[in-house]
């Protein structure tokens, strides 16, 4: 069965960077585009970043542009999100999700929590 | 940027029909997707491509769209349907995703 397992969250200091990982299993990772979505405590879902199946196309939301790098390793079935210059607004649970044809997110991981601490 | 507008909350009695709407400019010509999220859990897709149910989603849950409004309808509402529901659209041209603010469904 499809599984997505995120890791790398934790307490972060001002102006530091963080790299999150998402290990995929149960499907051919290299054939699917992927996303990161985050959710601040008590708030709604916010799309963060996208990367195509071969990594040639990627994008980041306006709220994180310039601080966000999404990448993938298709040999290790792993998706990454690097965030720089972290601030309180980045406190959230970060989910990775699989892109389904048509633009929906058909499978989600359980998320990894990033907490900003001043 | 594409704005999706959802009412913050909807309440319905058990056995009745819940209607959750998602407003967006010309959303009727877009592919709309819906997710259910229960407290402490990851979102689960309940509708994709405006009207299609993934495997395992009950027929009580359906989607539709017209004009500037997409709608998620849950008939014969059960206590287990109590959750937050989010609509979502994908803009393939600019490779951007957009979520509505979410609607909290309360079963009375």
List descriptors:
heterodimer; A: 118 residues; mainly beta; seven-stranded mixed sheet; 11 strands; 0% helix; B: six-stranded mixed sheet; 46% strand
Walk me through what this model shows.
The complex is a heterodimer of chains A (118) and B (108). By secondary structure, chain A is mainly beta. Helices cover 0% and strands 46% of the residues of chain B. In chain B, the strands form two sheets. In chain B, strands 1, 3, 4, 7, 8 and 9 form a six-stranded mixed sheet that branches. Chain B has a three-stranded antiparallel sheet with strand order 2-6-5, with no helix packed on it. Classes of the chains: A mainly beta (118), B mainly beta (108). Chains A and B meet through β5 and β10 of A and β3, β7 and β8 of B.
**Form type of chain A:** globular
Number of strands of chain B: 9
Order of helices and strands of chain A: EEEEEEEEEEE
Characterize the largest beta sheet of chain B: strand count, sense, and whether it forms a barrel: 6 strands, mixed
Low-confidence stretches of chain B: none
**Number of helical elements of chain B:** 0
Question: Cα distance, first to last residue of chain B?
Answer: 36 Å
Helix/sheet category of chain A? mainly beta
From the N-terminal CA to the C-terminal CA of chain A, the straight-line distance is 40 Å
Number of helices of chain A: 0
Major beta-sheet overview of chain A: 7 strands, mixed
Query: Low-confidence segments of chain A, ≥5 residues, pLDDT <50?
Result: none
* Greatest interface: A-B, 23 and 27 residues
- What is the average per-residue confidence, as pLDDT of chain B, rounded to a whole number? 97
Query: What is the string of SSEs of chain B from the N terminus onward?
Result: EEEEEEEEE
Share in β-strands of chain A: over 45%
Please give the number of β-strands of chain A. Answer: 11
Mean pLDDT of chain A: 95
User: Which radius of gyration of chain B do the C-alpha atoms yield?
Assistant: 13 Å
Sheet-strand content of chain B, in percent, reads over 45%
Q: Helix content range of the residues of chain B, please?
A: under 10%
